[in-house]
Fold Hydrogen peroxide-inducible genes activator => OxyR.
Amino acid sequence: MTITQLKYIVAVNNYKSFIKASEKLFVTQPTLSMQIKKLEEELNVLLFDRTKMPVILTEIGQTIIEQAEIVISETKRIHDIVDDESNEITGKFRLAIIPTIAPYLLPKFVKAFLENNKDLELTIDELQTDQIIDGIRKDEIDAGIVATPLSNKEINEMPIYYEPFYAYVSRKHSLFEKKKISNKDLDINDIWLLKEGHCFRDQVVNICSQNEKKTFSKKRLLNFEGATLETLVKMVENNFGMTLIPDLMAREMMSSEKSKLIREFKNPIPKREISIVFRRSFLKKKIILKLQNEIIKHLPKELKNKRSGYVVDLY
């Protein structure tokens, strides 16, 4: 039994396909299949039911996969221990960021972070929160930048900043004449939302749920959910409804005509807590701390605390 064989069976389980697993591991499919077959013969068990599409684990295969994931993770920790003893930040670091943060935060810090850590090979992916947490659990991602708290016992959360929500209101909307708005002004049937799966959507729904009014506007005639905040903003700019946007996005609009559509919330201001998240057993804490410090250096000071506001729940 080898670590390589264990990595192969974990990959097949993750991708539910021998072909996809071989592509991800950059080996030929016959090589991967042969090594898995050798492992099955050594253990005298069948790990996968190859008659099913997609491929599924046998009952004993499920138990062995769980142990294989632990072995692979613990093996990787040996390299992490050595790297952590060094004062230098080296090696590979896989970071993932949710779509409602990435376009507004990444350009602020990533160039400086790489310049200050020239021996670090950084990979960044844009994924939804559930995908990031799953990637961390599978050891495919080292850390993520997401909205928190997640209430996940397997995940460490290191808060970076607290980002206010703003309303983005079309000129023909009833709230356009208000200088500031409150939760009580909001009607969930009157706000453009992101698609299911975006935590930003869940937080907007939670902000609206604090409206104590018993009646809301009539059901909208157009049912539309966007894949990006930019799409929702375009709807508003064409005199169609309203939406909520995060602070860093709003700041990019302040020097243009778009600023006239932005409305602040009255106190207490709804905010989202943005954190770096990583596995509790993750050893490369030096990289995490460097990342946190670099991001904080490039943020407006008002975002560094949650005074005059409250953190909106995710669930």
